[in-house]
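Hi support team,

I'm filing this because I wasn't sure whether my run with pyridoxal-5'-phosphate finished correctly. The job status page said complete, but I'd like someone to confirm that the output block is well-formed before I use it downstream. Pasting the exact inputs I used:
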Amino acid sequence: MSINQSGWRPEMAGGEAAPVKTFTGNKGLMLEEALIFEIGDSGRTGVDLLEAPKVASRLGGLERAATIGLPGLSEPEAVRHYTRLSRQNYAIDLGLFPLGSCTMKHNPRLNERMARLPGFADIHPLQPVDSVQGALALIHLVGEWLVKLTGMAAVAMSPKAGAHGELCGLLAIRSALEARGDARKVILVPESAHGTNPATAAFCGYAVENISATAAGRVDLEALKARLGPDVAAVMITNPNTCGLFEPDMKAISDAVHAAGALVYCDGANFNAIVGRVRPGDLGVDAMHINLHKTFSTPHGGGGPGSGPVVFSESLAPYAPLPFVEKQGDHYALVEEETAGEHHAGSFGRMVAFHGQMGMFVRAAAYMLSHGADGLKQVSEDAVLNANYILRSLESVLDAPFAASGPCMHEALFSDDNLPEGFSTLDIAKGLIDEGFHPMTVYFPLVIHGAMLVEPTETESKAALDQFIGALRSVGERAKAGDPALKSAPHLAPRRRLDETLAARKPILVWKEPAAAQAAE
Ligand SMILES: *Cc1c(COP(=O)(O)O)cnc(C)c1O
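And here is everything the job wrote out:
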């Protein structure tokens, strides 16, 4: 496909064709928006409050002397401000979200409807358990599905995200090791692991050591075996891994780890690629978190809190956190510190104040029940099929490092290897913004130079995939043709290339009056 056939025209790049300079700064329907502090002022308000009665202050001279400094806006000004900002954003409800390792799939509206049922939405965690039996039954039901789907023995529903689940799993592992008087200090993490894995291990006070990857992007089993020893507490393995590949040696890894007296933590964030087809319990996993906001379609990325239940093997179950829901005859009980019996005396304690993200449990239950067991199997099959469609459609344009070794799982991985001198992954990502897509995950996983990781998920149609493939192909071909306009993309977004490093390292989080800001410089 030549550049012109792809629909891209030089004038789209801006610069060449004279841009229309507008009075407002708006570009047609792409509306400019100033900071809320710049459009508001302290003398305006959207509400009409009664004059406060004069009361004698009892603050002993600690009353605030200066104004709070909130921007004052009328109601329509406030509504328009946030609506304009929302139009500068990208969302799963606008288009395909190709982020790899993050699983941004459609959030079914049925889930939302169920989560708003008053019996779920309007209850309080401190209500007597007899008055919330339905809610406890639902938590129990989701837990049962997770235990069954993973082939594990027990589940902790309370962790509130994947990374929180990792913490939960490692705390249980540490408790189990301490219970046998074996304070091991090292956690092994393969190169292909998600970044949260080493961060969690370090947070728990463990020394983290890397295990290298093979040329095929998998854990190097021999390197792992060579490092195992009496100081190793656990290995943390992401499976399928962040190269979008299944670890075929998983059972051999688990056996070797167990033989060395250590435990196996599996990062199950990519469970959506294998749900209904593989049970991690059969592979010797001791603890694994599941991101309900990935595999089970609950919203995330600004749309809702995450939820990261953790499943445990038989041997680790006694160390799982409290509380949990237990079915006792027809009654659902909440097992807490006071009511935990002998069997749970080893529990490491609580992860959260209450019981987890109730609203997300309802959404996940709606997703599970509407799909059924056969539907969930189809979910993973379609997710893998879609990713392979992308991989095979684009491997002739972008370098696909592991494509020769066979199909991928739920995400397709590309590198910057065959881009011409002067062009990088960043240019491809920015070019995609002009095409109306959120960029894919870039420069991760770290094992691949200039990585581009694309996860389409099962919820995209073939038409949507074809449009995305066409866009990415076009951008890739522009890079290969040396199109200089790509170096300064995006041209059709409210902002161009921002200094992302500066924004991350020196974020400006407090607005100052322009005069004050100038004086501070
Ligand atoms: C998303 C993800 C995590 C972290 O999960 P959060 O819910 O974002 O904390 C961990 N590992 C992998 C492989 C992931 O994709």
